[in-house]
Amino acid sequence: MNSPLHAGTLESLVFDNRFVNELPGDTIKTNRRRQVRGACYSRVHPEKVSSPELLTYSPEVAEILELSPQTCKTDYFAELFGGNQLVQGMDPYAMCYGGHQFGNWAGQLGDGRAINLGEIINSRGEHWTLQLKGAGPTPYSRNADGLAVLRSSVREFLCSEAMHHLGIPTTRALSLVTTGEQVERDMFYDGHPKEEPGAVVCRVSPSFIRFGNFEILASRGETTLLQQLIDFTIRSDFPHLGQPSTATYLKWFNEICRTTAEMIIHWMRVGFVHGVMNTDNMSILGLTIDYGPYGWLEDFDPNWTPNTTDSQGRRYCFKNQPHTGQWNLLQLANSIFPVINDKIPLQESLTLYNDVFQQGWNEMMAEKLGFTSFDPQSDNKLISELTSILPLVETDMSIFFRNLALLDIHPDAQDTDSLLYPLLDAYYQPEQITKEYKNRIGKWLQDYMQRSLQEKLSTRERRSHMNRINPKYVLRNYMAQLAIDKAEKGDASMINDLLELIRHPYDEQPENEIYSAKRPDWARNRPGCSMLSCSS
Ligand code: AMP
Ligand code: MG
């Protein structure tokens, strides 16, 4: 069907459904909630919806899939990605996985409201799995409805694309479709359920396999199947590591440790807080996955967590993300151990995670400060002093780093007020700037100036280096919420405005200056802006 006549259409998609073709599936065919043993997935169809309507789509993702803009604007596209149709070659299924939630083994979880339509192979030979999130119940839905609401779907759609454009490994989003159905949600689990518009996002990723896919098999002692899934994953997504063997398994785990560390360094670079780093939300490819109660640091508070469910323990707060990554990798190591039977190399990889993280963090912070490389002599102290200073008064992380590039680097003495001047925009409450604070940041700025002088970069070079790593625009929590408020009233225009904005997060966009400003005061404590729950 790859004739020029069909190019760019849904009918021209070529499927190569490796996951279902090569791994054993559930033998029970009824879509009934249950424990699924001896299988990696269950075949299940999306639920039909009354009136699917496309709110928006990502042109870049359509291009990856080789779908033309005309195709994406057809009714058929909305029908398909709302769950009402299938095209030839699709073979829909939900995956079986388990997970550690908030540190405790939770048993079988699985795709409770995600249905994989199939795996596309494009003309470049790349495999991309299409997955509908919110397309109805599956055997893994436990006591929930398998649906998603508009609010959480807008957040998932925008954030996955925002992360991609920031240069952060992530699953992608093709489309956002409203279903015409009403879905009941108790947003803060406090006895106030409300009807909300239903929606479906089509997520796209080379693979949706999570740490939890391996954990569930290990927890059940299904070692043969575990090895089969490991071999499949290596052959499909890590072919560069060679044919599956014990040596390859170890290289594979090592690589997962490295990519996970790299992903979290990126999160720390832009102030992203995932909010639910359970092992079922950790991609085997080191991609950011499952955008639920995530948030962006506005004031630099290392203890901040966007997730109200996490507000007591703060297990998943900003500063704990690196350690949590390692804890999750330890669970993965435990689960693949039965096919490796040697814990020493696994432990070495977990140690390597720390080294990769520390080195990557140092280099990333040095780059944020405008240094071409990390100089341990001076930079350890500069970075740790800065991360101690930033939380002292409410300081906007994105504005602070972006504006550091505006400092004039020259050898003449400058007083604290002139040094601080370009950074004043970053302070939420200037009255918090005491004399003591000023002395401390003044000293830091003097040291920073001296260190920057060593770089011998022109002002232009320095600014352009820094502006490539310190984004001007991130998806501030309140921005997504404003887009949701409008979309719930039937106006999707702001979703598209934000999609356009986040395409160029490092560029100056004079017409969008407002979105680079501090969070407005009304958003400080508004649900959806500073407090989120897993309810979605
Ligand atoms: P999450 O917290 O989104 O990572 O979800 C944890 C588990 O709950 C996964 O197995 C999800 O598929 C499942 N889940 C979350 N929301 C729903 C829902 N509305 N219906 C069915 N399953 C859900
Ligand atoms: Mg999840």
Q: Level of helix content?
A: 25-40%
Number of helices: 17
Most strands sheet:
5 strands, antiparallel
Q: Could you name the ranges where pLDDT drops below 50 across 5 or more consecutive residues? A: none
Protein structure class:
alpha+beta
Distance between the termini: 38 Å
| Ligand identities | adenosine monophosphate, magnesium ion
Mean pLDDT: 96
DSSP E strands, number: 11
Taking all Cα atoms into account, the compactness measure Rg is 24 Å
- Main sheet strand line-up: 2-8-9-7-6
Succession of helices and strands: HEEHHHEEEEEHEEHHHEEHHHHHHHHH
% residues in beta strands:
5-15%
Please state the overall shape, judged from the principal axes of the Cα atoms.
Answer: globular
Describe the structure.
This protein is α+β, with helices and mostly antiparallel strands and 536 residues long. Among the domains are: 243-367, no CATH class; 368-467, no CATH class. It has 17 helices and eleven strands. The strands form four sheets. It has a five-stranded antiparallel sheet with strand order 2-8-9-7-6. A two-stranded antiparallel ribbon has the order 1-3. A hairpin with an 8-residue loop joins strand 8 and strand 9. It is globular, with a radius of gyration of 24 Å. The model has no long low-confidence stretch (mean pLDDT 96). The site of adenosine monophosphate has 17 residues, from loops.
